[in-house]
């Protein structure tokens, strides 16, 4: 299947360059000159992913993304931002952008990020319902059949990439998972990845799960190794898990 990219950017030079490069690498590409008509466009044309510039006249990328997510549209989005627009990047990620790329950029990097986001989305796509009882930790419940996360009974909005990451963690509780292992489980491929998609998923999970995302209790960092899911949120769990792993080795 040929993936279809919708590029939304008011700069004709960027549009032509990106369109030519992506088409030359087997992707279908259509363009939109600003964010004003994005939602209407998606009602009649359904691309695989949207590449969305932040700084545009009429309606900027942040407003366009906010409108999409408010309407419940979960289409993958990669933001294009000016290199200094840190606030825009953070806002975009909070609104539900899947990744961002700072201008000026190499089209090869954009292609790599597009493929990464699409692989992650394909890996998290619903398949046959899982015959597994809900998993509970703290005030949360993971419903595998419904592919939902609930907090004290209330559904927590969770994107497919974040659900896939959470599912891997809860299936491997109290096990230190390296970044390579997480990427392999998410994408079905081994190797080292330099993109930030895993960081984005974990960052979003922590914002949803943790009382203080800067001091996480459920998804804890194992410095120099990776991450560990601690269902009871206790401190000292990382050290105990590392000692147990070294004893079993």
From TrEMBL:
The keyword Phosphoprotein applies. InterPro entries: CheY-like_superfamily, OmpR/PhoB-type_DNA-bd, Sig_transdc_resp-reg_C-effctor, Sig_transdc_resp-reg_receiver, WalR-like, WH-like_DNA-bd_sf. GO terms for cellular component: cytosol; protein-DNA complex. Residues 132-231 bind DNA. It comes from the Bacteria. The keyword Transferase does not apply. PANTHER family: DNA-BINDING DUAL TRANSCRIPTIONAL REGULATOR OMPR, REGULATOR OF RPOS. PROSITE patterns: OMPR_PHOB (PS51755), RESPONSE_REGULATORY (PS50110). Residues 4-118 form the Response regulatory domain. GO terms for biological process: regulation of DNA-templated transcription. This is Winged helix family two component transcriptional regulator. Residues 132-231 form the OmpR/PhoB-type domain. The modification 4-aspartylphosphate is found at residue 53. Keywords: DNA-binding, Phosphoprotein, Transcription, Transcription regulation, Two-component regulatory system. GO terms for molecular function: phosphorelay response regulator activity; transcription cis-regulatory region binding. It comes from Caballeronia sordidicola (Burkholderia sordidicola).
């Amino acid at each position: 299947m040929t993936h279809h990219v919708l590029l939304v950017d008011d700069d004709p030079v960027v549009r032509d360059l990106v369109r030519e490069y992506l088409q030359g690498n087997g992707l279908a590409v259509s363009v939109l000159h600003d964010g004003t008509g994005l939602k209407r466009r998606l009602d009649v044309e359904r691309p695989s992913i949207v590449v969305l510039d932040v700084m545009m006249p009429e309606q900027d990328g942040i407003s366009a993304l906010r409108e999409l997510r408010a309407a419940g549209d979960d289409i993958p989005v990669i933001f294009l931002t000016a290199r200094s627009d840190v606030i825009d990047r953070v806002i975009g990620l909070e609104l539900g952008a899947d990744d961002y790329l700072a201008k000026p950029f190499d089209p090869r990097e954009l292609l790599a990020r597009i493929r990464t986001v699409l692989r992650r989305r394909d890996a998290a796509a619903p398949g046959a319902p899982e015959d597994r009882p809900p998993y509970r930790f703290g005030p949360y419940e993971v419903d595998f059949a419904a592919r939902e996360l609930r907090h004290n009974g209330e559904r927590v909005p969770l994107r497919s990439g974040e659900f896939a990451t959470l599912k891997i963690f809860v299936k491997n509780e109290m096990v230190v998972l390296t970044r390579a292992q997480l990427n392999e489980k998410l994408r079905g491929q081994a190797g080292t990845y330099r993109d930030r998609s895993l960081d984005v998923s974990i960052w979003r999970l922590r914002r949803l799960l943790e009382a203080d995302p800067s001091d996480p209790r459920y998804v804890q960092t194992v410095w120099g190794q990776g991450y560990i899911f601690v269902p009871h949120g206790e401190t000292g769990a990382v050290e105990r898990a590392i000692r147990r792993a070294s004893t079993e080795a």
